[in-house]
Structures are given as structure tokens and as C-alpha cells.
Design goal:
D-Maltodextrin-Binding Protein, domain 2; three-stranded parallel sheet; 35% helix; alpha+beta; globular; 16 helices
């Protein structure tokens, strides 16, 4: 099997261990003749054991007469957009099964004809409805067609501010970890932190600050229309950029830039939480379904001893699952790809090999059923990208990792039920009827928004220009079309 180290990801998987279920693998024939299905992995560390893990996974697939083999394609995180775009247009080295997480979205991969419909999978593998949950299947639908299956995981989230523990201790707030605070209280902490540790910036991803304002943006990263209070009370879409909330966010960004909370030259930086892991920033906004989950993630993925301050309530909205798994339109064997995709959602062994590696080599299991790095090993010298199960289709099939909370996945599912729910969950906007306006607005957003929200321009001068150009580009038409589609989705 040809190995391809194309670049870096993360790993993941859940819940309903189904080696029983539907037997679609009978009489699979000679394994030497089975098709091989490729899928991406974006490791956050150097991977040296790809061949061993892949062999163990394929040995397992042979043992259950799966009728399909697997080929993991390692993709560097920084190149994921370029590499995935190429692989989704190649019939020579295509990717078969993939997620649009980190490089695209459902609407784009459908419009670009990079995926195939998967409605027939729900007939062939009806257990998927129970595994994913019928209420969440619409997160992978566009115009009523199932093009992707959303990951099984947390659909609800809380936004926290994470601060390095040593910084928090130095300013006397470490004992407040887990406390819910206001933005004014956070600003006081940040001022103290910057005075004590001026070597750090404190917001690697400045745009995340919008999440504290409690808007439902209908999974639109350009924020072309938002609904206050995360659509828990109303479903009327307004022009967010015309609100006092957006102006206040711009002015806050100007204050933060002046205080040195953003990285130097922010418009020419990559904005992700790796800067927190690498010690460039002393804090970051972070989201998870619970305090315990956030702490575990910061420890495992970002390797920082942190304290956390809660900023928002537990909420599920249209951005709940920005990740869905698909079968590519260039796959040379879509039936085999669908079979393997089903296994990713239902077979705990498949998920554990991919998300965790080989037991005893890449992780060990304690008496409570939780998994850990083997003694003397860490993420950097493990040889496999263990510890990011959330990236893959069904993290609840994996063993809880680097945590003593054996019930973490039960807690996750419970959080989905307990959260405030946007009335719009499952809605996906089809921009085709206003395509020209949508593209024009996107261009204006790209020109102005980051400059405003990283405090690089004068708000009084630039905000009126931004708003005027948004209107000229057609944002009101986009919002009107979005409202009409949402009303139809809601049955109004």
C-alpha cells in the first residue's frame, strides 16, 4: 500500500459498540481482492507508526470479514486545504472518505460536487439513525439530501477563557478556576496578567470573542445575519454588523490591541490555539461541553496546565457540529467507502485503532476503563496521534483518554440534552439564489472584519465604510433569502 505523508490532523471516535448490528459483510471473498478505502488523518505530532497501526487495523478488518481495507493518509494541518482540494479532484490518488472540518463546509463541498448523496446508507445501515440521532442527521443535509453524517459527540458548548496556571497564580486568580465571570471581570484579570507577564499575548484567535455575545449565526463564518440569544427566543435574522453589539466588539478589540493582548502584526499571523500550546500566548478562549472536558482537552491537546473561567451558558446551535464525514465524488469504489464509513460510526475497534493506535504501544487501559499514555511516553514520542478522538466520526466508541472520568461520553450526551437549544439546529443555508451577493459580501467581510476585530484600524473611520459596502454588496438580500429559507425550514 503506497504511503503518502502529505502533511498534520488529530484523531477521534464514541458510543454504541456495534460489532453486531447489520451483517453487510457476509461472503466478502478473498481479502487480497478487497478494495482499499483512503481516509485522512491530521496528526499534531510526528507519526512514525503509520504502517504498524494500519496493519493492525487491516488485520482486524480481515478478522471480521469486512470486505474492505483501509489506508490512512497523513496530511499536514497547515496544508490541509490545499491537499484536500487536490485529492478531491484527483481520480489517480483520490481520498475516499473525508471530513470537511478545518478546510471547508457542507454547502461548499456539495456545490463543488466533491461529495455524493448518502441517503441510501440510511436504508442499508439503519443503525446509523440511532448512533447519530435522528434529531442531528439534518446537520449533514442540504435541501433534504443527506450528503454527510455529523460526528457523534458534543453538540452543545460552553465558552471559557483559559489562562496558564502560572500566570493565574501570579495574579491571584488560580483558585477561581471553574467560576463563571463577566467580561468586565475578565478584562481586570487580563490587565493584571499583562502587567505580570508582558511577554505573552492573550488572544490567539481574536474572532472567537464574538461567541461571548450569544448570537446564532446559522453556521455562517462570515456572520451574514445573526439571531440574538442564540435563537432561543426568536428566529428573526438581523444584520449583525449594524448592531451596537458589533460596534462594541470593534471598540473592545481596539482596546485589546492597544493593551497588547493580540499577537504582533495580527493580520499576517495564523490564528489558532497552537500559539497557546507553544507558549506564545498566556491564555486563549476555549470551548467544550463542560469544565472537566475543557480541562482534559487543554491538558492533552494543548499540553498546558490551565485555569478556566466560564463566560457563557451551555448552548447548542447551528454551529454545534461543524464537522461531517462524507464519501468523495472521486472515490473509485463508493460502496466500499460507504461500508468503511459505517464502520467508523459503529465499530469500536476500528475507531480505537484510528483514534488511539495499538493498545499497549500507544495507550494503556487502567482498571476503570480509562486510557493513558504508556509509562515514559508522551504525545511527542508516541509514534501515533493519540488524544483527539473528537475529529473522527464517533469518539464515544473510544476509551476515555487522559482522564479519570470514565463517564465522560455519557456526560457529553447528557450535556446535549441539558443545553439551551437554538430553534434553528439543522438549518443549512443554500446561497445559490443569492450567489452573487453572497460572494460580494464575503469579499467585503474579508477586506474589513479582521482589521476591525484585531484593532488595526480606527473604528470611527472604518466601521461606517464597512457597513455601507456591505449594503452595497447585497447583505440585505442575503439576509432576506436566509430568512425565507429558515422560515420554510421551521414550517412557517
Amino acid at each position: 500500500m503506497k504511503k503518502r505523508l502529505l502533511s498534520v490532523v488529530l484523531a477521534g471516535a464514541m458510543a454504541v459498540s456495534m460489532l453486531g448490528g447489520i451483517n453487510v459483510m457476509a461472503e466478502a471473498g478473498d481479502p487480497a481482492d478487497w478494495p482499499t478505502v483512503s481516509f485522512p488523518i491530521l496528526p499534531v505530532v510526528e507519526v512514525t507508526d503509520e504502517e504498524a497501526v494500519e496493519q493492525a487495523l487491516n488485520d482486524y478488518l480481515v478478522s471480521i470479514d469486512a470486505g474492505v481495507k483501509a489506508d490512512a493518509v497523513l496530511i499536514d494541518f497547515g496544508s490541509v486545504s490545499q491537499v484536500m482540494t487536490l485529492m478531491l479532484s484527483s481520480t489517480e490518488e483520490p481520498i475516499d472518505v473525508f471530513t470537511y472540518n478545518f478546510f471547508s463546509n457542507l454547502t461548499s463541498v456539495v456545490k463543488n460536487e466533491q461529495v455524493i448523496p448518502l441517503d441510501d446508507m440510511l436504508e442499508t445501515y439503519p443503525d446509523l439513525k440511532d448512533v447519530i440521532g435522528e434529531d442531528y442527521l439534518p446537520l449533514g443535509q442540504l435541501n433534504g439530501t443527506q450528503y454527510a453524517f455529523p460526528v457523534v459527540g458534543s453538540y452543545a458548548t460552553i465558552w471559557f477563557y483559559a489562562m496558564r496556571r502560572d500566570v493565574a497564580e501570579d495574579i491571584g486568580v488560580a483558585d477561581r478556576s471553574g467560576e463563571k465571570i463577566t467580561m468586565d471581570e475578565l478584562k481586570e484579570m487580563l490587565a493584571a496578567a499583562k502587567e505580570a507577564h508582558p511577554e505573552y499575548s492573550y488572544f490567539p484567535v481574536g474572532l472567537d470573542l464574538v461567541n461571548v455575545q450569544d448570537y446564532e449565526f446559522l453556521a455562517d463564518n462570515d456572520w451574514m445575519g445573526g439571531i440574538p440569544k442564540n435563537a432561543t427566543e426568536s428566529t428573526e435574522i438581523i444584520n449583525y454588523y449594524e448592531t451596537d453589539d458589533f460596534e462594541n466588539l470593534c471598540r473592545q478589540a481596539a482596546e485589546f490591541a492597544e493593551a497588547g493582548y493580540f499577537m504582533n502584526d495580527p493580520l499576517n499571523q495564523t490564528h489558532d490555539k497552537s500559539h497557546y500550546k507553544n507558549g506564545v500566548t498566556g491564555g486563549t478562549l476555549h470551548n467544550a461541553f463542560s469544565y472537566e472536558s475543557a480541562m482534559d482537552d487543554l491538558k492533552t491537546t494543548y499540553t498546558q496546565d490551565s485555569v478556566l473561567f466560564q463566560l457563557t451558558d451551555l448552548t447548542a446551535n447551528c454551529s454545534a457540529s461543524g464537522s461531517g464525514w462524507c464519501v468523495s465524488s472521486v472515490s473509485q469504489n463508493p460502496d466500499a467507502a460507504k461500508k468503511f464509513l459505517h464502520l467508523l460510526y459503529t465499530d469500536e475497534n476500528v475507531m480505537r485503532f484510528i483514534a488511539q493506535g495499538i493498545e499497549g504501544q500507544h495507550y494503556v487501559v487502567d482498571e476503570n476503563g480509562c486510557s493513558w499514555y504508556p509509562e515514559g511516553k508522551s504525545m511527542t514520542d508516541l509514534g501515533w496521534s493519540t488524544g483527539a478522538a473528537w475529529y473522527f466520526p464517533n469518539q464515544t466508541l473510544t476509551l476515555p483518554f487522559n482522564t479519570t472520568n470514565v463517564n465522560i461520553y455519557k456526560d457529553m450526551i447528557a450535556a446535549n440534552e441539558e443545553a439551551r437549544h437554538s430553534q434553528c439546529i439543522g438549518f443549512i443555508f443554500d446561497s445559490e439564489p443569492v450567489y452573487d451577493q453572497y460572494v460580494a459580501v464575503d469579499s467585503v467581510v474579508k477586506e474589513y472584519r479582521d482589521a476591525l476585530l484585531y484593532g488595526q484600524v480606527d473604528v470611527d473611520d472604518i466601521l461606517p465604510m464597512f457597513r455601507e459596502e456591505l449594503v452595497d454588496a447585497g447583505i440585505e438580500e442575503v439576509i432576506a433569502e436566509k430568512q425565507a429559507q429558515l422560515d420554510a425550514f421551521l414550517g412557517k
